Amino acid sequence: MPKIKAAFLLCVVLALTVFLSGCIDLDFQNGELIHAPKADAEHSAVQAVIDDVTGGNYILKFPQSGEYKTAIIFKDMNNDGQSEAVCFYSPNDPAAAAVNVLIIEQKDSNWQKAGVFTATATELNRVLFADINGDGTAEIIAGYGALPQSISKLAVYGFTANGTTEFTLPNTDNIKNFEVAAFTGEKHSDIITLSVSATGEGYARLISWRSDTSSLGVLAQTPLQSGIATFEQILCCELGTNTKGIIADAKTSDGSYITQVLYFDYDENTFKNTLATNNTTLRSNPIFSMDTDGNGSYEIPVCTTFGFAENEDKTKVGFLTAYCNYDINTDQLTPVLSGVADATGAYFLNLPAKWNAQNVTMRINSNENTLLFYEWSTAQRGNANTTANQPAATTPAGLQTTPSGKLLLKIRTFAPQEWATTAADGYLQLAKNNSCIIGYSLPDTKSPLAVTEADLSGMFLDNK
Question: What's the pLDDT score for residue 401?
Fold first, then answer.
């Protein structure tokens, strides 16, 4: 199993703290500005065109997600060696709140309007640039929607021999998200859209340029796992030799999470989602695919519950997360890293070598943000591990809340103000940032599975 670099694990601690735990309250203002901010001469010239087209009464619209986070984007779209400017705005009028797309180009060193288009949406979600039709110029792919991870409308704009145009797209109703790349291996980029119908059926479409009709059309469609409601993360990546696809972490209608893998199989000329009927990646917590070893590919989380006894409160049982490589040739998920994320996602623990799901189990104390690790023996407790997608059981009165094995380790996440109180008694600091302190406690046990402080540091950072 590949070892994790220390820097990566530190990033896991900090990134998961921000992303999942709620320890940090980030107040990003996507905002709406009545006018563009003051700028240099070039930007001022662009602003003058915007003022001329809009009459000076407009609201800038900012993408809520993606690479571009500004309402005015400079990009050499038509490969003439000069940047064009794309401005997203809406009239400062509640009765006409639709997003407008203004394309501005340079002619003889003068900035001028190249085209204006009006979207059938009031919020801008994401903007991409890619050569969709293979003509060597970049088109604008704009996703519209009010929520960061939810696209409701999709549009493509660009230059043609006759000026600028909005390309006609096939029906993209019910779209939730999209990604753009050269999925079919052609010289042009393609679009994968992820949709959920009004009846709850999910499907993905591969939209590609058709040279015979000089238009965008649906090359193929494939089903998604049933029950998907939203897409929390879309990763565009290499899935195999010269095979680009997407890994999509989705949230289901019952609040669970599941991962889909979509790609175009060149040999079979087929658009595939081989996990469409596979529940292996179904999990209860918001744990998402990530590049665990820094090699540029992404691993998919597969979660299984730790062992528990028949007479035990199953709602307190934790689960083991294995980040797995997905092989499109064999349709197999192979673990490259196994460990534990705490209940809030504030940290990830790489289990020591002598621990595994057969000799150790874990319980969660949500009230105290604490993970508790115990000795475990399937033979003694009488229950084998089960998959993490099993529904949480309703706990009858009288069930025990802890295993009978020896307590090996406690890990707790503290707010800074808690750390300074008696709540931290018995804990030593393991890691911290500005908003969270992670403490640990090692009970005095003679168990052969007991860990030392040196073992514990290796659970967070590589000892190499």
Answer: 52
> DSSP letter at 275?
T
Quick one: DSSP state of residue 3? P
Average pLDDT over residues 210-226: 94
3-class DSSP assignment, residue 291: coil
- How far is residue 402's CA from residue 391's CA, in Å, rounded to a whole number? 20
The contacts of residue 429 (CB under 8 Å, 6+ apart) are 419, 437, 438, 439
- List the structure tokens of 242: 């010269």
Beta bridge partners of 221: 205
**Do the beta carbons of residue 273 and residue 318 sit within 8 Å?**
no
Contact by Cβ (8 Å): 235, 247: yes
Residues 6+ apart with CB under 8 A from 219: 184, 190, 206, 207, 208, 271
Q: Which of 186, 189, 196 is nearest to 248 (CA)?
A: 196
| Nearest-angstrom CA–CA distance, 169 and 207 | 8
CA-wise closest residue to 275 among 240, 236, 335, 224: 224
Higher pLDDT, 345 or 208: 208
CA distance 156 to 141: 5
CB 385 within 8 A of CB 50: no
Please state, in angstroms and rounded to a whole number, the distance separating the CA atoms of residues 40 and 52. Answer: 18
Query: Percent of the chain beyond pLDDT 90?
Result: 50
Rounded mean pLDDT, 384-405: 47
Asked if the model's pLDDT at residue 384 lies above 70, the reply is no
Q: How far is CA 108 from the centre of its chain?
A: 43
CA distance 85 to 331: 44
Return the structure tokens found at 410: 């406690």
Place 444 in a pLDDT band, splitting at 50, 70 and 90. Answer: confident
- What's the one-letter identity of residue 301? P
CA distance 379 to 36: 68
Residue 405 amino acid letter: G
Contact partners, residue 230, CB within 8 Å, separation at least 6 = 149, 150, 176, 250, 251
Residues near 74 by beta carbon (within 8 Å), at least 6 away in sequence: 83, 84, 85
Average pLDDT value for residue range 49-76: 94
Residue 463 has pLDDT above 80, yes or no: no
Q: What is the mean pLDDT of residues 98-125?
A: 94
